[in-house]
Design brief:
The chain has one domain: outer membrane lipoprotein receptor (LolB), chain A, CATH 2.50.20.20. The two termini are 22 Å apart. It has 308 residues and is α+β, with helices and mostly antiparallel strands. It is globular. A twelve-stranded mixed β-sheet has the order 7-8-9-10-11-1-2-3-4-5-6-12.
Length: 308
């Protein structure tokens, strides 16, 4: 198996994590609509109360299902597919420990990327790529991805993807509530059954400008660079996203659905949350076990230029 093939597989996994980040298998049930909330102000008041409670919880367990439309070219070798993720995350401090897998990972090279262990500290993700990749990377099997640095340095495709990714990557339930509260058209759609229990259903839309404003991954970027990423995404046909959220009787979000329209269709992320206040113990891999994704891609680009 060539290093170029493995690089394609690694790139695929990287973009998958970027776009998904951590936001969940939709847990449905019979839907029973209640009376629609007539006032967006009343909906925001309820969401703000849930935000305060969720922020104080600081962590939760999650499952997620993500779907990228077939034919969507977000990076070399990445043409859509489905992924499933599960784990635990905290938002104060920001940390995550999860396992991911699915067809979107295995399409490049069967058996190479069946499942990946991912940990995150603040804006840095570490992905355990396994023994097969370690053989091609001088024994190093953890891939480091500095999301903030990648957003600042990324080209057109990577930058736009990272802009989207940061919006998704920061979709912990507290952030979801904060973003939804800022939606100019947030609505309360009534009461529905989630996991066999009643939950209040809210929905709103956000433009890509509003999404970027609430995207902590882009913190530290200059206003000019941030605007460049937003413009690139818009030129690619991405204007914003829809978000839905269900809050249980205890005041916590139990499900979130995010949809982003892209040129080839609709990218969706469906997350389910439980066990608020769960313990999150995450540590970064040692330096001698990791390689940097950005450095690897720079090297791949330089090699392509020489062979052209």
């Amino acid at each position: 198996m060539s290093r170029s093939v493995k690089r394609a597989g690694i790139s695929l996994a990287a973009v998958a994590v970027l776009v998904a980040g951590a936001s969940a298998c939709q847990s449905g049930g019979d839907s029973k609509k209640g009376a629609q909330e007539p006032s967006p102000k009343a909906a925001r008041t309820a969401l703000q109360a849930a935000y305060k409670k969720t922020s104080a919880a600081k962590s939760a367990r999650f499952t997620m299902k993500m779907s990228i439309p077939s034919g969507t070219q977000v990076a070399p070798g990445v043409v859509g597919g489905d992924m499933e993720m599960s784990g635990v995350q905290s938002w104060d401090p920001a940390a995550m420990d999860m396992t991911m897998g699915g067809p979107a990972l295995t399409q490049t090279e069967p058996g190479l990327l069946n499942k990946i262990h991912v940990v995150q500290l603040d804006n840095v993700m570490y992905m355990d790529m396994g023994a097969a990749v370690a053989k091609e990377m001088d024994g190093k099997h953890w891939m480091k991805m500095d999301l903030g640095a990648m957003a600042a340095a990324g080209g057109a495709t990577q930058g736009a993807t990272t802009t989207l990714a940061g919006g998704a990557q920061k979709q912990d339930p507290a952030q979801q509530l904060a973003l939804l509260t800022s939606s100019p058209n947030v609505k309360h759609l009534g009461t529905e059954q989630i996991d066999g229990a009643p939950a209040e259903h809210y929905k709103g839309t956000l433009s890509i400008d509003e999404m970027a404003a609430g995207n902590q991954t882009l913190d530290g970027m200059s206003a000019q660079d941030r605007q460049k990423l937003i413009d690139t995404a818009k030129k690619g046909g991405i204007t914003g996203y829809d978000t839905e959220l269900w809050i249980n009787k205890d005041g916590y979000p139990v499900q979130t659905n995010v949809g982003i329209d892209v040129p080839m269709g609709r990218m969706t992320m469906k997350a389910h949350y439980s066990d608020y206040g769960a313990k999150v113990a995450v540590s970064a891999p040692s330096e001698n076990e990791m390689f940097d994704f950005a450095d690897m891609m720079k090297g791949a680009g330089a090699g392509a230029g020489k062979s052209a």
